[in-house]
Structure to design on (158 residues):
């Protein structure tokens, strides 16, 4: 799925630095058409998947695992796009913005890796620990979501 980001990485970095969106000199307008999907929409869809995992029973483990695999692939694609956007805008960023953007992306990758570890535990865990595994996955997703927000900012702040 092709995603048109409603905020440039420069705007994201400015949001992280100043708490409010600031037009980035290299790209002062950010628009989306009705057919485009925003980052917020993608995050909402991914959140919905992880939130729904709590409703799966141990008998539905295979279905839950497949759903999570698809969602993790989509999340990885989004992270890859955020990193590519940062590389594209790197030369136009101030040193402070570079540092903040880099740190936020490193934290996002770290949290994504921890989510993957929780997912691996869920796949391999015993049926008797299903509820604990779901809770661990939910906690890991919450950390990824927070790190993601630190990278992309909230479109509501626009």
């Amino acid at each position: 799925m092709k995603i048109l980001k409603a905020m440039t990485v420069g705007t994201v970095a400015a949001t992280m630095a100043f708490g409010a969106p600031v037009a980035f000199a290299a790209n002062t307008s950010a628009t989306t058409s009705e057919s485009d999907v925003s980052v917020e929409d993608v995050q909402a869809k991914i959140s919905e998947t992880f939130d729904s995992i709590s409703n799966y029973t141990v008998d539905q483990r295979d279905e839950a695992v497949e759903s999570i695999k698809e969602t993790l692939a989509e999340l990885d694609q989004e992270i890859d796009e955020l990193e590519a956007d940062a590389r594209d805008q790197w030369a136009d960023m101030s040193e402070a913005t570079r540092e903040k953007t880099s740190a936020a992306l490193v934290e996002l990758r770290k949290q994504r890796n921890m989510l993957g570890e929780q997912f691996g535990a869920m796949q391999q865990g015993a049926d008797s620990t299903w509820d604990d595994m779901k809770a661990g996955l939910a906690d890991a997703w919450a950390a990824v979501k927070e790190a993601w927000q630190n990278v992309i900012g909230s479109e509501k702040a626009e």
About this structure: Residues 39-152 form a domain with the Four Helix Bundle (Hemerythrin (Met), subunit A) fold (CATH 1.20.120.330). The CA atoms of residues 3 and 81 lie 9 Å apart. Confidence is low (pLDDT under 50) at residues 1-35, 154-158. The chain has five helices and no strands.
